[in-house]
Amino acid sequence: MEIVWPATALYLGPAAVLAYRKWGRPQSPRWLDRHGNPPRRSRHAPTIIQTYHCATHCTLGVIIATPITYGVGLEIFGSAVWPEVVGDYVGAVAIGVAFRYSAEAHTGGRRAWAAMRKFFRADLLTVSVFELALLGWLALMHFLVFHETLRPSSPVFWLIIQVGLIIGFFAAWPPTSLLIRRGVKTELLGAPQ
What pTM was estimated for this model as a whole? Predict the structure, then answer.
């Protein structure tokens, strides 16, 4: 979660800081040592925190994959948008598996397989919905609004990405809620944030 809160602040700004102060900080060992038990969280807090977690995969995926895609100059059908779509999705999945891998207790090859199994079971749906919303927004902006390829060197490009990340967050909320209700996503809910 040390990566999740700053990554969330990249696209939600002050709202992420407020959420951290309300739900994240009271879960930290330092806060617990000073104040004892954390305050009671709202019923929406687990869903929001889990959505932040999966959204971090997508946020880091777009931040890493987009400059690489444009830097290499990849194009499909004469456009850099399609390699960006593929790169962002693959980047989000790879980062999600890496998050799971870093938290896995197994060793060796069993650790990698366990991480992939847990990611595909608990995170793939949320990441896919988030990416579909984000990449749909980017395609809409590219083909209907700008009619030209914006580059990562443009501040407008990153503003569009930021808006897409917010749209993706709200799109990923319902599947996250569904997975929590079904007991699939539970590992972060009782752990310190």
Answer: 0.82
